[in-house]
Each structure stands twice: as structure tokens, then as C-alpha cells.
């Protein structure tokens, strides 16, 4: 008999340190068989670090891990896999040019006499995908499928390896509302089949709807474990942030002024197929208002923003900011009018191997306050970085000299927002500004965007989070298949009506012109 059969995994008194920071400080987490156990905490609270310890990516300085009551040593992910532990990472670990099937069996191939037994592997994957409701096209290349589908591939990878303990690290950060509902259903199905799930998240709605228990971490320390049926969102957010949090956006009526951004008949070609990704889009954004482009991911929002900011070439129409036609300006030149919080913080927002202070002056290092005679004034850069770090509460192990790659995703996001809002441009383009952030950080960023609006900035928001769309925007434009199919007033519409426009079931032909 094991001494503690009630828990399939126990992490007891785990401590993990990095330079300048105790990421996990004496943390205990116990997972029961067949439960969904949520791990909740702010960005940088130590959730991903703790799971990386369980998955063998890091070795803890102190503490022990038990499986079914027996102490185990997990030196690397192969040990974790052998113990039946699998992990879906926040940034997927897939090979883009391989097919779905090849990605699933990669590293766990069935061979006979040195030959790959693809037929058997395919059969096993098909059975798994039917059993757990994970429909995927096994022959599609990963680069051609949606993010939601890529996630299913990651889950099938775990199931193919017969993993019993499944770790999901922020699994809904990149999904549409519909895909999130599907994923939560899949998670429930997995536990019905006897799997046990650790679910890292800071989305309180999701935790309340699927988790059995929640363990809360704050700044690397263990705060407590509660049953979801005995708690509520407000209590959880207090545990997580350590103070009461406003879960609703506080804002006064907008008082729109002059037109700042005017988009006319704007068209952007698609990289994937012959049809345009953005077709003949027209709308205005005025000073002192937040206009949100809502839509299901993959309906042209990304291409539109790339065309607007100069990351992609447009093929027709015009963009005017403050009366200047910028349609043919370079990215750098457009940057004189636009602050851009990009969708992909790693690709377009940060240079990951630069320090935090270098990232905070990326567009400004040539300004006289930071440069003299071709040399960067290091002291000026450092004190400027310190100010932004304090003002925006950007947390990192070594302050301005931290390498950005080592920071948590939420703090990377805060750094971009600090830099962009401080540039003080008439138009702020914010794409998924709170993706992957916790309630405390979301509250802060929403209040910053509202403050910018009230200072007379024009804010163009692109968001997939329906709560954010409804509570932050003054006007909503819905984009479907590259066109604006509706313009809604958030005070007069409902989430379900918004959903009908987003899915293309409903449209009005006014588009955005009647603004």
C-alpha cells in the first residue's frame, strides 16, 4: 500500500531560485486522481516555474515530489514522461513544417526493425482523437492550422504518450471564446476517463467553471488551497493580488473630438490564399474615444493592423492620421503618429535577448535625451527605464538590466505598454493588450487606456476577449472575413448579439462609415 494513495502527485515544500528572485518559496501542491486542480496567481507569481519543476525542466533547490505516495526524482522531461506526466506549454512546442501526425509521434515513434510504423501510429492517434473529441486533420501541416487546432495537437501528443497527469500552462491565452468552451469540455472529458489535470490560469471565469480545487500563489509564496464550490471570483482575486480588485472597468462617458484616424477602402492581400485578407474597410476613430475591432481570430484583424502599422503592404485604399496620408510611409515614419502594442509580443514587441532598459528605448535611443555624438547616454537610459518600471510595476529579477527573455509573459507585456504609452502619440493601436495577463494587471492596463482616452488620444483596440470588448470600448466594429459587418454600441448590445455578428450570422451593411 502507498502511504498517500489519495494524491496522485504531491509537490512538498518546493523552493526554486533564479538570480535575484525566489520564484518558488516553500510551495506545497497536492493533486488528487481525476480532479482538475487550478493553479492561480499573478504574472510572475511562480506558476509556470512550479510546473516546469514538475516536468523536469528545472531542478528545485529544496523540496520533494511524490507520485502515488512514493518519492520520485525528475531530472528531465523524459523522466516526467516515464512517470506519465505531460505538459502543454503556453508557447506551443510544434514543428511548423511537419504534419499533425508527425508532430504527435515525434520522439515517441513506433518502429519495427528500425522502420517507422506510421500506419499503427495513425490508427492509435485516430482512436484517441475520437475518444476524447479532439478532431484534427492528421495530414495538414502545423503552419496551416489554427491556434486552437495546434493546441489539440499538443493534447494528443500527451495522450499518445499515455500520460496520466496533464499540465496545461495558460491553455486559453490564445484561443477564441468558442475554442475556450471546447477546450474546457475536453478537459472535463479527460478527467472522466481518469486523467488528473493541473490547470495554470488567471482567468477566474474558467477556473470557476471547470476546476474542482484552486491553489493560489502570490509573489512566489503559497497563499492557500480552496474548493471552487466554496469560493467566488472576488475572493480568489483578493487572494491572488492581495487587495480588492475592480473586476469592472471604471470610465465616464466618452467625449469624442476631431477625427484622428481615417481609414478609407483599405485592402490588404492575404499571404495564404488569393482572396484579400482585408477587403475595402472604411471607418474613423476620433480623439477621446476607444473603438474596438472585435471578431473571431483569423478574420483579418492581424492583417489589418499589420497594414495599418506598416508591417505588411496594403494593396488599396488610404490611411490618414491627423490629416497626414501615411499609406506609403515606412514603419519608422508611421511611428511618429502611432503607438503600437502588438499582438505578438515576442515577434514584434521586444528584442528578447536585449535588456529591459534597451527594450524600453527601442524607438527613442536616437533622441537627444538618450544620445550624444553617436553614443548612447547609459545613465539617462537607465534612469528613464527605472521611472517606467516603477510607474508600470514591471517586475523582474534584476530591474533594468534583466534580459527580457527571462521575464514572465505578463511583465514583458507591461514593459511594451509602458514604452508605447510613454511615447505620447495621437493614435494608440492596442492589439490584445491584456492577453495572458492577470486581473491586477488587466485592471491597471484598462485604467491606463481609459486615462489616455480622457487625455484626448484616439484608441483603436483589437480584442478577442468579449468581456474586454464590452467593458472597455465606446464603439464596437465587428470584422468578419476581412470586412466590417457591423457597428455596435456596447451599452445597447449584448454578448450574444455580438457573437452573431462575429460568426457571420448577422450583418448590417452600413459598415463603419456612419460613425
From TrEMBL:
<feature type="domain" description="ABC transporter">
    <location>
        <begin position="9"/>
        <end position="244"/>
    </location>
</feature>
<keyword id="KW-0677">Repeat</keyword>
<dbReference type="Pfam" id="PF00005">
    <property type="entry name" value="ABC_tran"/>
</dbReference>
<keyword id="KW-1278">Translocase</keyword>
<dbReference type="InterPro" id="IPR050107">
    <property type="entry name" value="ABC_carbohydrate_import_ATPase"/>
</dbReference>
<dbReference type="InterPro" id="IPR003593">
    <property type="entry name" value="AAA+_ATPase"/>
</dbReference>
<feature type="domain" description="ABC transporter">
    <location>
        <begin position="261"/>
        <end position="506"/>
    </location>
</feature>
<dbReference type="InterPro" id="IPR027417">
    <property type="entry name" value="P-loop_NTPase"/>
</dbReference>
<dbReference type="InterPro" id="IPR017871">
    <property type="entry name" value="ABC_transporter-like_CS"/>
</dbReference>
<keyword id="KW-0472">Membrane</keyword>
<protein>
    <submittedName>
        <fullName>Heme ABC transporter ATP-binding protein</fullName>
    </submittedName>
</protein>
<keyword id="KW-1003">Cell membrane</keyword>
<dbReference type="GO" id="GO:0005524">
    <property type="term" value="F:ATP binding"/>
</dbReference>
<dbReference type="GO" id="GO:0016887">
    <property type="term" value="F:ATP hydrolysis activity"/>
</dbReference>
<keyword id="KW-0067">ATP-binding</keyword>
<keyword id="KW-0547">Nucleotide-binding</keyword>
<dbReference type="InterPro" id="IPR003439">
    <property type="entry name" value="ABC_transporter-like_ATP-bd"/>
</dbReference>
<keyword id="KW-0813">Transport</keyword>
<dbReference type="GO" id="GO:0005886">
    <property type="term" value="C:plasma membrane"/>
</dbReference>
Amino acid at each position: 500500500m502507498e502511504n498517500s494513495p489519495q494524491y496522485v502527485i504531491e509537490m512538498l515544500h518546493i523552493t526554486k531560485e533564479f538570480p535575484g528572485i525566489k520564484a518558488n518559496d516553500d510551495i506545497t501542491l497536492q493533486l488528487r486522481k481525476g480532479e482538475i486542480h487550478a493553479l492561480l496567481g499573478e504574472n510572475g507569481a511562480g506558476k509556470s516555474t512550479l510546473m516546469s519543476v514538475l516536468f523536469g525542466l528545472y531542478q528545485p533547490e529544496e523540496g520533494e515530489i511524490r507520485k502515488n505516495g512514493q518519492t520520485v526524482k525528475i531530472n528531465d522531461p523524459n523522466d516526467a514522461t516515464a512517470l506519465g506526466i505531460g505538459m502543454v506549454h503556453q508557447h506551443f512546442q510544434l514543428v511548423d513544417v511537419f504534419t499533425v501526425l508527425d508532430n504527435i509521434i515525434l520522439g515517441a515513434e513506433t518502429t519495427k526493425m528500425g522502420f517507422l510504423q506510421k500506419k499503427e501510429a495513425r490508427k492509435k492517434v485516430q482512436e484517441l482523437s475520437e475518444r476524447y473529441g479532439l478532431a484534427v486533420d492528421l495530414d495538414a501541416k502545423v503552419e496551416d492550422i489554427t491556434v486552437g487546432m495546434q493546441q489539440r495537437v499538443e493534447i494528443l501528443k500527451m495522450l499518445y504518450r499515455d500520460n496520466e497527469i496533464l499540465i496545461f500552462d495558460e491553455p486559453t491565452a490564445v484561443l477564441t471564446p468558442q475554442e475556450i468552451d471546447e477546450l474546457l469540455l475536453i478537459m472535463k472529458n479527460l478527467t472522466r476517463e481518469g486523467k488528473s489535470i493541473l490547470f495554470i490560469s488567471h482567468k477566474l471565469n474558467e477556473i470557476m467553471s471547470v476546476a474542482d480545487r484552486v491553489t493560489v500563489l502570490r509573489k512566489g509564496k503559497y497563499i492557500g488551497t480552496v474548493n471552487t464550490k466554496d469560493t467566488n471570483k472576488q475572493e480568489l482575486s483578493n487572494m491572488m493580488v492581495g487587495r480588492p480588485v475592480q473586476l469592472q472597468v471604471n470610465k465616464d462617458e466618452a467625449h469624442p473630438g476631431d477625427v484622428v484616424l481615417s481609414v478609407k477602402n483599405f485592402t490588404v492581400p492575404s499571404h495564404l490564399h488569393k482572396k484579400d485578407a482585408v477587403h475595402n474597410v472604411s471607418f474613423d476613430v476620433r480623439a477621446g474615444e476607444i473603438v474596438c475591432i472585435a471578431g473571431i481570430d483569423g478574420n483579418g484583424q492581424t492583417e489589418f493592423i499589420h497594414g495599418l502599422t506598416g508591417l505588411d503592404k496594403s494593396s488599396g485604399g488610404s490611411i490618414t492620421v491627423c490629416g497626414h496620408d501615411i499609406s506609403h510611409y515606412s514603419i519608422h515614419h508611421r511611428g511618429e503618429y502611432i503607438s503600437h502594442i502588438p499582438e505578438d509580443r515576442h515577434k514584434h514587441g521586444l528584442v528578447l535577448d536585449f535588456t529591459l532598459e534597451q527594450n524600453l528605448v527601442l524607438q527613442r535611443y536616437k533622441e537627444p535625451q538618450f544620445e550624444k555624438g553617436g553614443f548612447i547616454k547609459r545613465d539617462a537610459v537607465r534612469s528613464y527605464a527605472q521611472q517606467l518600471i516603477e510607474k508600470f510595476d514591471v517586475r523582474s529579477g534584476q530591474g533594468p538590466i534583466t534580459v527580457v527573455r527571462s521575464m514572465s509573459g505578463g511583465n514583458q507585456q507591461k514593459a511594451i505598454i509602458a514604452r508605447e504609452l510613454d511615447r505620447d502619440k495621437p493614435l494608440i493601436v492596442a492589439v490584445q493588450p491584456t492577453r495572458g495577463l492577470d486581473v491586477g494587471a488587466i485592471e491597471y492596463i484598462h485604467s491606463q487606456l481609459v486615462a489616455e482616452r480622457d487625455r484626448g488620444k484616439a484608441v483603436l483596440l483589437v480584442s478577442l476577449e468579449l468581456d474586454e470588448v464590452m467593458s472597455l470600448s465606446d464603439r464596437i466594429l465587428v470584422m468578419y472575413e476581412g470586412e466590417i459587418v457591423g457597428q455596435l454600441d456596447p451599452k445597447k448590445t449584448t454578448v450574444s448579439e455580438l457573437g452573431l455578428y462575429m460568426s457571420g450570422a448577422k450583418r448590417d451593411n452600413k459598415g463603419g462609415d456612419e460613425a
